[in-house]
Design goal:
This protein is mainly β. The protein has a single domain, classed as OB fold (Dihydrolipoamide Acetyltransferase, E2P) (Beta Barrel). It is built from no helices and 5 strands. The chain has a 5-stranded antiparallel sheet, with no helix packed on it.
Length: 94
């Protein structure tokens, strides 16, 4: 299965679909609410959430995701980027 993160969620006019950005930077993959596995609820998904899925070729979108589920926790540590602190500005005495 491929891992990726949710980049778009649409819940307008009765439709529920989204897009997943696969790890490795390839093209985003479309998914429909019917592609979610078992206990995963579309409304519980959030942007940036890690998921795993199987990519299937199709003639409309090029490819789409099937069997979308929450990604298992990875063994590698998560690195959180911190915002650089601004250097203090001291008034110069002349």
């Amino acid at each position: 299965m491929t891992r990726g993160s949710v980049t778009k969620l649409v819940t307008s006019f009765g439709s529920r679909w989204g897009r997943i950005q696969p790890e490795g930077g390839s093209r985003e993959v479309f998914f429909n609410v019917n592609a979610l596995d078992g206990a995963l609820d579309f409304l519980s998904l959030s942007l940036g959430q890690a998921v795993s899925f199987e990519e299937q070729a199709d003639h409309v979108n090029g490819s789409h995701a099937e069997h979308v589920s929450l990604a298992p926790a990875s063994a590698s540590p998560v690195v959180v980027a911190r915002r650089a602190e601004r250097p203090s500005t001291e008034e110069a005495t002349i």
